[in-house]
Design brief:
The protein contains 16 helices and no strands. It has 325 residues and is mainly alpha-helical. Among the domains are: 81 residues, 434 Repressor (Amino-terminal Domain); 110 residues. The chain starts with a helix and ends in a 15-residue tail after the last helix. The relative contact order is 0.08.
């Protein structure tokens, strides 16, 4: 346990968390200090709770503790805390499947934002301010969706992401929690800061290719960035990230993301006036997905490329997505 305590302290310090930030009714600051110094032990359930308090999954903890990649195993999500971690940061699932859903979601987000603000005022912790701010980001996003406007632009003010951005700039070694914070707040950040932090995100997400619970995280980060840039109509920047996506797939092939790469490339070709090449690349993506029996993905690519071919970029917001594995 003494060695585990040292790793806990390392992670806590890296995230800029004080003992009082981690302490709660199950873990006092005094006990945590003793555990970190190897002067106290704790039960497995209590240790898992501690990992939750420092925003770290068990697999990630032992990756840091052992200093080596975890062995690739069968694909099962064995995480104790990822769902709980995201629930604490983001909140419950939101439905945007229909106009009625959007109206209800706006009502729910207004309620959630007020509750989160009150919670932050009562206890101004890092997690509480991030939870409050993400409700504001999501409310603005859903409002734009209702108004049929792009969900992000080159003129983002960063109004709701200052605390998240400051936190990310001050964490030297990002973990999954930081990657998810970046993903959720990327919609609001000023573009220069968002692109700078994206470079950190890609670098830090590379190690997760060895994690059984998050093997596609680096690909998801690049795909998410491409959706942001394409919706910003920043086509020269998107071209650079397409090359980065391609290089990542050459180094670590993945069928689903190969299809997604071809889809985004076809989308980019349509938006840069190369319609014939776009159609060819798009059909190749559909054929590949069909051959691999990925029927849902094949249908998605077909539907969205049909819209892209028949509508201008002002309609691209309708299939915007950000993926958190």
């Amino acid at each position: 346990m003494a060695a585990l305590g040292k790793t806990v302290r390392k992670i806590r310090k890296n995230k800029g968390l004080k003992l009082m930030d981690v302490a709660d009714n199950q873990l006092t600051a005094s006990f945590l200090s003793k555990f970190e110094r190897g002067l106290a032990d704790m039960s497995t359930s209590r240790f898992l709770h501690l990992l939750d308090r420092i925003f770290t999954t068990p697999e990630e903890f032992f990756y840091i503790h052992n200093g080596t990649p975890t062995e690739k195993k069968a694909s099962t999500d064995g995480y104790y805390s990822r769902t709980a971690m995201l629930d604490r940061l983001f909140g419950n699932y939101l439905s945007l499947d229909s106009p009625a859903d959007i109206q209800q979601t706006l009502t729910d987000l207004t309620r959630r934002e007020r509750a989160a603000a009150a919670q932050y005022q009562a206890a101004p912790t890092l997690l509480n301010v991030l939870h409050w701010r993400i409700q504001q980001v999501m409310r603005r996003m859903v409002t734009r969706l209702e108004q049929q406007r792009p969900l992000t632009s080159l003129n983002n003010t960063g109004q709701y992401s200052a605390e998240a951005q400051n936190y990310l700039y001050n964490v030297s070694d990002w973990g999954e929690f930081e990657l998810y914070v970046f993903t959720l707040f990327s919609l609001d950040m000023q573009v220069a800061d968002e692109r700078r932090l994206f470079k950190v995100a890609v670098k830090r997400s590379k190690k997760y290719s060895t994690f059984r619970g998050a093997p596609h995280l680096r690909f998801d980060m690049i795909a998410n960035q491409l959706f942001l840039e394409m919706n910003r109509r920043a086509y020269p920047v998107a071209a650079e990230y397409l090359e980065q996506y391609k290089a990542a797939l050459v180094a670590d092939p993945n069928a689903e993301h190969e299809i997604m790469y071809c889809f985004v490339r076809a989308w980019w070709l349509y938006r840069t006036g190369q319609r014939e090449t776009a159609a060819t690349v798009g059909q190749g993506a559909i054929r590949l997905a069909t051959a691999l029996r990925m029927t849902d993905i094949a249908q998605y690519v077909q539907n969205e490329l049909t819209q892209i071919a028949t509508h201008g970029p002002e309609a691209d917001y309708t299939f915007f997505r950000l993926v958190i594995e």
